[in-house]
Amino acid sequence: MKLSELLNESPCDENIQKLLYDGLDYDGSSADLVMVLGSRKACDYRMPEAVRLYKVGKAPQMLLSGGQVQKTSLGEMAEWDSMKRVALSMGIPESDILIERWSKNTAENFMYSDELLKGYLPEGITIILVTTAYHMRRALCMAHKFMPKYDFIPCPVQKGSATKENWYKTEKGRLTVLDEWRKLSYYIRVGIFEDIEI
Question: Which end of the chain has the least Cβ crowding within 10 Å, N or C?
Fold first, then answer.
């Protein structure tokens, strides 16, 4: 089934589960780089998983992407800054951290990261993508659109109110996934990224 076909269906629980979570579990593969997308809670949710991947040898370098200033648990600062502070505090050498400082949304995460990696790492490298579980489908679609020369391995973080196991249990979780459904519908409709098989 194509992504657009699923989005034309009603956003019932089964379709939401298929759209946002099915087939996106981390498969344990190693890669050349771990890429972490910024958010207000990235330093709390996403960074511990990225650090774990680095420490168990899944990738030798880390790319932290996000220039939006947010109220993080470390204070008000740019996403990349909060993520870098966590990485350093958890023992990641600064020499193994790449920083993308300009992006303000998911599309820009990949547009600016693509520019950053040009001439630094060769085309065709494999990247483990770390973001919150409900955000992974849209993030991968953006990755394939704006960084098509790289292979991406999803590593969704199952924390917060909209995980694979709990999104349907609270109003907050349901609102989060319905918002994600609307965003994916919009991006497909206006052609921001290509239709894919689900």
Answer: N
What residues pair up with 151 in beta bridges, in sequence order?
126
- The tens digit of pLDDT for each residue in 27-61 reads 999 999 999 999 999 999 999 999 999 999 999 99
Tokens encoding 108: 């820009």
Q: Which is nearest to 130 in space by CA: 52, 42, 35?
A: 35
Q: What is the largest CA-CA distance in the chain?
A: 48
Q: β-strand 69-72 against 62-65: which pairing, if any?
A: unpaired
Q: Are 130 and 154 in contact (CB under 8 A)?
A: no
> Does 99 map to a domain?
yes
Q: How many helices (H) and strands (E) does the chain have?
A: 7, 7
In a domain, 12, yes or no: no
Residue 193 belongs to some domain of the structure: no
Residue type, 27: D
The pTM assigned to this predicted structure is 0.97
Domain interval for residue 111: 26-157+169-185
Structure tokens at 168: 């349907």
67 touches 80 (CB < 8 A): yes
Task: Say if 192 falls within a structural domain.
Answer: no
